What does this fold into?
Amino acid sequence: MASVFEYAPAPESRSIVDIAPSYGLFIDGEFVDAADGKVFKTVSPSTEEALSEIAQAGAEDVDRAVKAARKAFEKWSALPGSERAKYLFRIARIIQERSRELAVLETLDNGKPIKETRDADLPLVAAHFFYYAGWADKLGHAGFGANPQPLGVAGQVIPWNFPLLMLAWKIAPALATGNTVVLKPAETTPLSALFFADICRQAGLPKGVVNILPGYGDTGAAVVAHPDVNKVAFTGSTAVGKEIARTVAGTRKKVTLELGGKGANIVFDDAPIDQAVEGIVNGIFFNQGQVCCAGSRLLVQESIQDELLDSLKRRLSTLRLGDPLDKNTDIGAINSAEQLSRITSLVELGEAEGAERWSPECELPSSGYWFAPTLFTKVTQAHTVARDEIFGPVLSVLTFRTPDEAVAKANNTPYGLSAGVWTEKGSRILAVANKLRAGVIWSNTFNKFDPASPFGGYKESGFGREGGRHGLEAYLDV
Amino acid sequence: MSDKSQKTERAERLSVFKTYKLYVGGKFPRSESGRVYEVTDSKGNWLANAPLSSRKDARDAVVAARKAFGVWSGATAYNRGQILYRVAEMLEGRRDQFVREVADAEGLSPAKAKSNAAKAAAVVDATIDRWVWYAGWTDKIAQVVGGGNPVAGPYFNLSSPEPTGVVAVLAPQESSFLGLVSVVAPVIATGNTAVVVASEKSPLPALSLAEVLATSDLPGGVVNVLSGRTAEIAAPLAAHQDVNAIDLAGADDVLAKELEIAAADNLKRVLRPQPVDEAGWSATPGLDRMTAFLETKTVWHPTGSLGVSGSSY
It folds into this structure.
């Protein structure tokens, strides 16, 4: 299907962000080289351009950062909550001031469209710091007793799909509750965390309260295993989450894990079709489907399958894929060559297993990592594309006849992070939402986030909640 | 049971022994393994032969607990509270029996009332009161840990706690009744179902508690009680893919670590053992033992209102 309109390009200027040719580790308030001098390059996934060279933290650097955080903990935790609050408010304000710069930076390093970094990531990042800033001097009212205490040094490992937002989810509640942090950003998206280090400097945050250690999985493993880390927070794959759970076994470390998902988006025959289509598109193509709570399984009531799929395909044909810095772009680049090959092989497996693959006509740029929006029909529950998390722009469509069948199919996975319910019938929304084993249920909407709302999974999607009053518990001795 | 060894003038009448059995799915089976082990009182006198549960008993108990989960988690909190309170009523009626069993198990003499402050009786009273405390929580915990969230947008969302599922509970070793009830009641008060491994040395109060549960309107399978070697029964429970959480109260540090590693395979919620003495079990509990086995579900819905700006859609 040809696109309805041709748009002139509307690129955001990248001159607003000044990326240095190299960055060090951020330890005890200073940028320093890795002890063993190791570096790696971070690449723009849309062009494969090397953006910068980043110091790669090893075990020795982890130890140094934990020591700095431990030392800083004494004073930071002893500060009156009202003073910690002011630091967090400062950070929140500086993020707002620099949000255009950070949005461009995030788009360059991650490959997601500027429309999303500008309108979703950055506003939420600032909102998280504002939200938790206000908690810092009100912890006695949070329901964990009169004077809940911080845990100490928090070791935090975050993924590449929402680099700055996941940093905010981790750092804001940790600092508000009086902990200090050692955070490892993902190896493909370290830049916004290093820019955040500069924001900490501008805010006058005491040295050692926040330490940033870019690196690969082994760096993260060293952070998690460090004996002087009191709290581990991880967002990422279920496989790594299990490894972390084994690592912390038998220790006193408190741990929260936000892991994978295979969210069901359930559309009943009385759903508003146009709104549902928008929700389905948002559910799986937001951030190229690289979202743990993505609605990657569409469960559609059999009687409206044809109508819904027609609408959906028509809508997908209008999605614009290309330069992430173009303000008209809906679908950006896949984050890395590695992730692209994972998506590609799972999709090929889907075809080989007999599911029917469809994509809109879509020209992919010649350089960079790209994958066209993809839809699988004739999918059964046994198909790999209906069971495994693909973490890409790939939607599997299944059908159901009764609400009970919809619930049974939705719950038939080891995951339990998110689900969507589309129906005009209020009682059905409540009844179905009640039976779904998932931490977040979006009714007649999808992929909504807010710092005041707890987020997290059931079953193998991990444990603990981030956001809201619940998000404080992970960082308090309760 | 201790009175069977007492030689009295009325010795012509032999007392009737009880065969202690497991409690699985609302029924009282023997261990499928046919094994038993000797349970003695604190002085080493024989009290009874308790079932020595096997891995198969543990798996059967998980099946029963899973089957009961839908009914129990789906019951209203009010109904669960009523049933838990009914358990307390039954416990009160059997108070003397439990005083005897706790006295035997823990060497707390009920007879030396003045010198020993009637310790066993005090433990049983505290246990019954603990059960009543949790009975009252069933319809309040959601109000305390759930709530509505003020999101910045035309949506409302509500967070509510939900039971995590089947919980394996390793009851504390030293506190055979108060400790036991302190770990079992919070699990089921919140709508989970439980597979309980009784204190290895002193399982009799747990097995008798099962008789109380069976006559208290509690659906079969909500609580399943196994006796035997804690390490032997706990291993298959920690590794079981249909167990959602495990309370390691009754495990020592070495066993607890092993079990926590096994539990990572399906990311079970783990409550690590905390050092608690009898005095600790007497303290009024916080919410931790309930929240450890609760999930938070947040449900979003559009409101159609864009707030004070006056616009809407």
Remarks:
- The mean pLDDT of chain B is 92.
- The first strand of chain B starts at residue 36 and ends at 40.
